[in-house]
Amino acid sequence: MAEDELAEIRRRKLEALMGQNEQKGVNKLSGVTEVKDSTFEEFIKSAPLVIVDCWAPWCGPCRMLAPIIEQLAEEFQGKIKFGKMNTDENENTPMKFNITAIPTMLVFKNGAQLDRVVGAGNKDFMRQKFSKYL
User: Could you report the per-residue pLDDT of 100-114, keeping only the tens digit for each?
Assistant: First the structure.
């Protein structure tokens, strides 16, 4: 096998291990939307109840939380709209909302901040937290 092929295989495996494939763009299965500084205001007003997960690719708890958020987005489809914002690539919104730890989930109802959830939890814990906003 050529050295270029081996390098490409290593790169793909590393991406998969780090969960970067799950963190890019819109996840077609769960409907989790990538949110940027430039789209944030529009996104939080796009549904009655919106949760934005502020994360970073180097954050272990963020990577552990990613599949839970995706599963809950499916479970709450039509009730809660979920987005993800990479705080390394988008600095203005995290500064505006004083995000000092990640993961942090910002909760918006009708475009106004209702709450924040700091830290990762298991699926049942997160489901219970998000259910109280309905």
Answer: 999 999 999 999 999
* Rg (alpha carbons) of the chain, rounded to whole number: 16
54 catalytic? Reply is no
Active site residue 62: yes
Query: Domain residues for 127?
Result: 3-131
How far is residue 97's CA from residue 93's CA, in Å, rounded to a whole number?
6
Which is the catalytic residue, given 62, 65, 102, 126? 62
Other beta carbons within 10 angstroms of residue 70's beta carbon come to 19
Q: What is the pLDDT of residues 8-24, one digit of tens each?
A: 777 676 666 555 444 44
pLDDT mean over 19-44: 73
- Confidence at residue 17, expressed as pLDDT on a 0 to 100 scale: 59
User: What is the number of domains present in the chain?
Assistant: 1
Encoding tokens for residue 52? 């934005």
Residue 66's identity, in one-letter code, is A
Backbone angles phi, psi at 118, to 5 degrees: -105, 130
Q: Give the CATH number for residue 65.
A: 3.40.30.10
37, 40, 41, 43 alpha-carbon torsion, rounded to 10°: 160
